[in-house]
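User: Some background: our group keeps a shared notebook of sequences we're curious about, and every so often someone picks one and asks for a predicted structure to add to the entry. Today it's my turn. The entry only has the sequence so far, pasted here. Could you supply the structure so I can complete it?
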Amino acid sequence: MEITDDFGLPVAMIGPDELSSAPWRRSGAARAAVVRMPAPPPELYGALARRGFVRKPSTVTWRAALGASEEEFLARLPRKTRQHVHRARRLIAREGLREAVEDRITPESLDRFLALYEDRVSRMPYGVAFARRHRENILYGPEKYAGVFLYRGDALEGGALVLECPEEGAVRVRWSAVTEAARRASLPRQLYCTTMRVAREKGYAWATLGDDPNLYGHIARPGLFTFKARMGFEAVPSQDFADPAGFDEADLVLSLEALTDPVLMLGYADDGPGRALRSHVVSASGTGLDAGPYTAAFLSGAPAVRPPGEPGGAAGPAAGGTG
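Assistant: Of course. Here's the predicted structure to add to the notebook entry:
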């Protein structure tokens, strides 16, 4: 067993031969919030499940079929989400905000976006501002990035950096950010609708709304799942949508001390070869938690809810704590 620091989250990495001895239980073992087995072998699926591990894709891709028109796409969304979109459009018109689409992002627009993006990420407990690392590639690399931006006068209210992937028939929203006022006014929804409209006009069939680490409660929060699902996107294992680096893992949440309460994972629905996913929610409230926000039509079955630790009370240190 090796303890690694995953952007502030202590994770105990184990191999298949260590499962039966449960080294994370030993007296004096290093403190870990999560026990993780990469690439679990099929013969251990049952044993992992009995110990409370969730077998899952390490990363999920959020994808949506664009359909023939925006009207068709919006008709799929929950009524409340459609209302948020229409409210955002009315606010944009009333306050004279300006949408700008850049088929090739300029350095000036990118730097304005990066300043906003990094400000927003700095406010997250475990946020990591990855986008600046890709600045030169966004501007000058062989891949084609487009930008969708929203301005109030000369001030940037929000934006999205979009990677065009003709070989996938898809556009990928790689990074997005809005001001706090824009977030409260539901402007991200309109920003994504504009992105999808432009993609549809270019002949793309799919849009993706990011690849998320499949442990909502650390870098990504559980509310992100709810937002993306209600925007008409579905989560699939990233390796099932053109990610050659995607892989499976099994996680056991021992403690919420370095995480939010609740934690959400999208695990495989059964031990067979199927790829259907199911919500797994870990909370100090246990089965008393309302799991309604973590349901979606693309998921299989009702959410599984449990407290942290192994079944039968073998919890980790500070199992009831919150991040």
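Suggested note for the entry: The two ends are 24 Å apart (CA to CA). The longest strand covers residues 155-165.
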